[in-house]
Design brief:
Structural class: mainly alpha
Radius of gyration: 21 Å
Number of strands: 3
Number of domains: 2
Shape: elongated
Number of helices: 14
CATH superfamily of the largest domain: Intergrase catalytic core
Largest sheet: 3 strands, antiparallel
Distance between the termini: 39 Å
CATH class of the largest domain: Mainly Alpha
Helix content: 40-55%
CATH topology of the largest domain: hpI Integrase, Chain A
Order of helices and strands: HHHHHHHHHEEEHHHHH
């Protein structure tokens, strides 16, 4: 106890970094999360990271943290610069994710009882004026924001391991993010066609009636998909996504799931097709060939895919899908 009382906040952050590493965070995410906490501390009067940590913990009470975020939001004065405002909201969203992770750490260390950011409606802070937000931003999610979204979804899965609806709905959103499938294609997937050994979903029936093989991204998707299937009651249905009674879901449920979790973790509501646009755009930004992207999206004509063309080299389908989660940095 004496040692703990003498611990500086700087030393406390070393333990937090170890916590982030064991949580599977990327080195870049860890760097940003630590930086955001330090910036918050340095924003306080007469407080430094060399201060004893027990003097700093009270700074993470709900009212103080939320006041800080509202002040960050209100400090931006140029309301007519849509691009800059987009960047501001992405930064605020990332910072909220980082603070939430730090609060999880404080709960684990028994410094606080509850993480008040779990379930917090981010639209209270990240609320956008649609008239001044750039048109492209409403069509796809920037890569840094997408990674934060994915990590929030995965943490939500871990925090609700026995909630059927949460497990199903979050898994629906994650699968849309990493496959670019249409809602109507996703709901027909059978568990027997999910091949976790070869990392493919076989026999996916596309809109045009063709059957496709869809690669399973290895870093994020494979693990949570495997865990999800392990919990399924296969005696009720062989479909991957069902209601509690085993009956097949419809695309309206898919739309509701995407709307709910985008509002919760992105701070704005989107629909499944924006995840499809995001999938295609990020593949192209990371060097995918336009013909490969057309095949992944099941477009009949190449002209339907040309709006995503940021192409510089050809990669095969498995390479493409795993480059989707390469760590290319963020704000």
């Amino acid at each position: 106890m004496f040692y703990i009382q003498l611990m500086t906040f700087e030393k406390f952050l070393v333990n937090y970094k170890k916590f982030l590493i064991t949580s599977g965070k990327s080195s870049n995410t860890i760097k940003l999360y630590l930086r955001d906490i330090v910036l918050y501390i340095e924003n306080q009067d007469n407080i430094k990271i060399t201060t004893m940590y027990d003097k700093i913990i009270p700074l993470f009470e709900k009212e103080k943290v939320l006041n800080y975020f509202f002040s960050l939001k209100d400090s931006y004065k140029d309301k007519n610069d849509g691009f800059a405002i987009n960047k501001l909201y992405r930064t605020l969203n990332r910072k909220l994710s980082g603070f939430s992770k730090f609060l999880d750490f404080l709960v684990r260390e028994e410094e606080i009882k509850k993480n008040f950011l779990n379930g917090f409606d981010r639209t209270n802070i990240i609320k956008k004026n649609r008239e001044i937000i750039s048109r492209n931003y409403t069509k796809w999610i920037p890569q840094d924001e997408l990674f934060s979204f994915v990590e929030d979804l995965i943490n939500h899965l871990k925090n609700s391991p026995n909630n059927f609806n949460i497990q199903r709905d979050v898994m629906i959103v994650a699968l849309l993010i990493f496959t670019g499938l249409r809602a109507s294609e996703l709901i027909m997937i059978k568990i027997d066609d999910v091949d976790l050994n070869e990392n493919f979903i076989h026999n996916v029936k596309r809109k045009r009636g063709l059957l496709s093989e869809i690669p399973i991204e290895k870093y994020y998707l494979r693990s949570i998909l495997s865990s999800y299937i392990d919990k399924k009651d296969l005696s009720l249905s062989r479909h991957l996504f069902t209601k509690k009674d085993g009956s097949i879901i419809d695309r309206h449920l898919v739309y509701r799931a995407v709307s709910k979790y985008s509002k919760k973790f992105l701070g704005r509501q989107i629909h499944p097709h924006i995840l499809r646009h995001t999938f295609a755009t990020i593949l192209c930004v990371n060097g995918a060939n336009i013909s490969d992207v057309r095949d992944m999206l099941d477009h009949k004509n190449i002209s339907s895919t040309e709006l995503y063309e940021h192409v510089n080299k050809i990669k095969n389908k498995s390479e493409i899908i795993n480059n989707f989660t390469s760590d290319n940095g963020s704000d």
